[in-house]
Design brief:
Elements lengths: L2 H11 L2 H10 L10 H11 L3 H9 L3 H10 L7 H10 L3 H13 L4 H8 L5 H17 L7 H14 L5 H17 L4 H11 L16 H10 L13
Helix pairs in contact: 3-5, 4-5, 5-7, 6-7, 7-8, 7-9, 8-9, 9-11, 10-12, 11-12, 11-13
Length: 235
């Protein structure tokens, strides 16, 4: 299937109601308003396809960009590809999910994330923290740089309440990810979660809420999921 074939399918699958919801969250034209469940039906047909993912992402169409992340071949993605993608990720569904998911599954995702979190661009910095969260959820504790993750927790403790809006959200999720997925850092993460408390994020008038990190980590513990890793960052 070609990029044009996919765009025709996306147009048929889109709905005005879904467009309205996504626009409240930050999506903008051009896009069709396709539900993620419908995007996954296309994924089953095309599988991983590096060139097609690059072509779809380059359209700037939010539906196509999200789909690009789902079919991206992490083994073929380059640093240049991902740096280009993160610069073009104009709203949080792409910058905090699509790009970080793919980046985290590459061998150099951690390195990219450390660069991104220092960006003056809000979406890029948020992408960096989100990538670090995904890396923590994928790699075994032995593969992770625990000392660096500990120092990043301290950075979050110091900076979260003065960081840009979406960076605050991503930092809060980072604390949750570390406390939930890295068993050896569970206690330090809980301490940071208690210190930062409630994190205020402007959710753009939507009903979305910012999870309280301390409560979220406790729920993970109560369910017996502490330290459980994921097979894929993408969903």
């Amino acid at each position: 299937m070609t990029k044009d074939d996919i765009l025709k399918q996306l147009e048929l699958l889109g709905s005005e109601q879904t467009k309205k919801v996504l626009m409240k969250h930050g999506a903008r034209e051009p896009f069709f308003g396709v539900k993620v469940a419908d995007l996954k039906k296309i994924v089953k047909k095309v599988g991983k396809n590096h060139e097609l993912s690059l072509d779809l992402y380059a359209t700037g169409n939010s539906d196509a960009m999200y789909l690009a992340g789902l079919i991206a071949d992490e083994a073929m993605m380059t640093r240049e590809d991902l740096n280009r993608w993160v610069k073009q990720a104009y709203w949080y569904m792409i910058s905090e999910y699509t790009v970080p998911w793919v980046a985290a599954e590459t061998p150099f995702g951690f390195e990219l994330a450390l660069d991104w979190i220092n960006s003056d661009e809000e979406n890029i910095a948020a992408a960096g923290w989100s990538t670090l969260s995904s890396v923590a959820s994928l790699k075994s504790d032995e593969e992770l740089d625990s000392d660096k993750y500990f120092s990043l927790l301290q950075e979050v403790k110091q900076r979260i309440h003065t960081a840009p809006n979406r960076v605050r959200y991503a930092m809060n999720n980072f604390v949750i990810a570390v406390g939930s997925a890295i068993a050896g850092l569970n206690i330090p993460a809980k301490q940071v979660a208690e210190t930062i408390g409630k994190v205020n994020v402007d959710m753009g008038g939507t009903t979305c809420k910012v999870p309280l990190a301390s409560q979220y980590i406790k729920k993970v513990e109560d369910k017996g999921y502490l330290g459980k890793k994921r097979k894929s960052a993408r969903c």
